[in-house]
């Protein structure tokens, strides 16, 4: 009586009836016979050979048939063609590689993303330098393009870059972005680099020339005009040239390095109204000016880690960054040094997120953006 293996061991198999071939697996000194669907196969030291039943004078006998190895058809590029059923000839019906055949392993989509170089949009201003410190050396991960905030945001919206340091208001003008967590350009009081310059009291201003490269600052200005100054001035986008702006309008909004290094004290009766300070007086919360945002289908943990490493390196090199920004002007370098150490921060904490939420709500109330939605972050 033969024995049949089961999951737990062996059990007895019923004997074959007279005149029937025993189509079960049985052990024998010379090999084994496996029968299925009327055809038997003998496993022996010579490999797999087809054994066809033959009727002879002595009854039921066997003769060895040829065993032909089916060669897979190859495309000119070296890959195999699928058979008529759409199956890979290098695999069996369960998707496992056939013995003696190699199976081409394709790089997964995740692996390809890990190795990708993404297009990064960065801002030219001093306050962005600590966030990109050393990234020029990471050509394995980033192809960097520098521009003003408005232009960087436009490049991201149009799909011409993948990740960008965008003005915070621009997040609401996208639909599918993710934000790199914990990294931002923020202020908790006077920011020094976003300011309204005027020779009039704010309540008497009727027209304002706005730096054409601004986005978040222009939105914040409208909020402050409505909530703090109680005015509805006409806004005119212009290049950031203060004398020309003040010739046309009652006040001028400047951002970035131009606002930071403008010597307003040399102009009679010209006041500098710091928008970061005005926001703190209104909301009692930090203000988030910009952050990294981009497309979730291309940005990987490796890119996010590199951005965090750049910020850490930048924070450790603030003196170096300030000196490089004013290499021939020690007074300017000192202003830059104080600015980076005292006026701006480079993280987004819980209070900063609350300030961002408040800013978005105020912008929606004034119809500056169509609607607000929750900020979604890259997984870290």
Structure, briefly:
This protein is α+β, with helices and mostly antiparallel strands and 380 residues long. It has helices spanning 109-114, 149-157, 216-229, 242-248, 256-261, 275-283, 301-315, 318-325, 330-343, 350-365; strands at 3-5, 10-12, 32-36, 39-44, 47-56, 59-64, 118-123, 142-147, 163-167, 178-179, 185-187, 194-198, 207-211, 234-238, 251-255, 271-274, 287-294. It has a domain at 30-66.
If you had to describe this structure to a student in words, what would you say it looks like?
About 25% of the residues lie in helices and about 25% in strands. It is of the alpha+beta class. It has a domain at about 30-65. The strands form four sheets. Strands 7, 8, 9, 10, 11 and 17 form a six-stranded mixed sheet that branches. Strands 14-13-15-12-16 form a five-stranded mixed sheet, sandwiched between helices. The radius of gyration is 36 Å and the shape is globular. Mean pLDDT is about 80; it is low at about 1-85 and about 95-115.
Detail the poorly predicted runs. 1-86, 95-113
CA-CA gap between termini: 63 Å
Number of distinct helices: 10
Extended strand count: 17
Q: Write the element-wise H/E pattern from the N-terminal end onward.
A: EEEEEEHEEHEEEEEHEHEHEHEHHHH
Oligomer: single chain
Major sheet size, sense and barrel closure: 6 strands, mixed
Beta-strand residue fraction:
15-25%
User: What is the residue-mean pLDDT, rounded to a whole number?
Assistant: 79
Overall morphology? globular
The chain-level structural class is alpha+beta
Helix content: 25-40%
**Radius of gyration over C-alpha positions, nearest whole angstrom:** 36 Å
């Amino acid at each position: 009586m033969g024995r049949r293996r089961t999951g737990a061991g062996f059990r007895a198999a019923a004997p074959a009836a007279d005149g029937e071939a025993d189509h079960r697996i049985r052990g024998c000194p010379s090999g084994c016979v496996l029968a299925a669907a009327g055809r038997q196969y003998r496993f022996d030291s010579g490999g797999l050979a087809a054994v066809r039943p033959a009727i002879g004078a002595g009854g039921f006998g066997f003769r060895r048939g040829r065993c032909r190895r089916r060669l897979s058809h190859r495309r000119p590029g070296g890959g195999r063609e699928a058979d008529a059923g759409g199956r890979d000839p290098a695999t069996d019906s369960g998707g496992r590689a056939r013995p003696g055949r190699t199976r081409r392993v394709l790089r997964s989509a995740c692996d390809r993303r890990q190795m990708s170089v993404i297009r990064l949009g960065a801002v030219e201003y001093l306050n962005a330098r600590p966030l990109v410190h050393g990234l020029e050396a990471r050509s394995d991960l980033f192809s960097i393009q520098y521009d003003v905030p408005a232009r960087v945001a436009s490049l991201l919206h149009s799909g011409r870059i993948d990740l960008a340091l965008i003005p915070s208001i621009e997040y609401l003008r996208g639909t599918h972005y993710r934000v790199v967590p914990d990294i931002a350009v923020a202020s908790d009081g006077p920011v020094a680099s976003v300011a309204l310059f005027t020779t009039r009291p704010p309540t008497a201003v009727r027209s304002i020339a706005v730096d054409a490269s601004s986005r978040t600052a222009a939105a914040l200005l409208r909020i402050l005009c409505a909530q703090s100054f109680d005015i509805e001035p006409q806004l005119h986008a212009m290049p950031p040239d203060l004398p020309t702006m003040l010739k046309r309008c009652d006040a001028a909004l400047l951002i970035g390095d131009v606002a930071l290094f403008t010597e307003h004290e040399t102009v009679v009766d010209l006041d500098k109204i710091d928008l970061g300070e005005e926001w703190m007086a209104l909301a009692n919360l930090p203000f988030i000016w910009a952050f990294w945002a981009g497309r979730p289908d291309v940005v990987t943990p490796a890119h996010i880690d590199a951005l965090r490493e750049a910020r850490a390196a930048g924070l450790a090199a603030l003196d170096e960054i300030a000196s490089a920004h004013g290499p021939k002007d020690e007074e300017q370098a000192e202003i830059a040094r104080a600015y980076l150490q005292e006026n701006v921060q480079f993280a987004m904490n819980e209070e900063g997120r609350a300030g961002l939420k408040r800013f978005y709500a105020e912008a929606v109330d004034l119809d500056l953006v169509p609607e607000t939605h929750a900020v979604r972050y890259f997984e870290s």
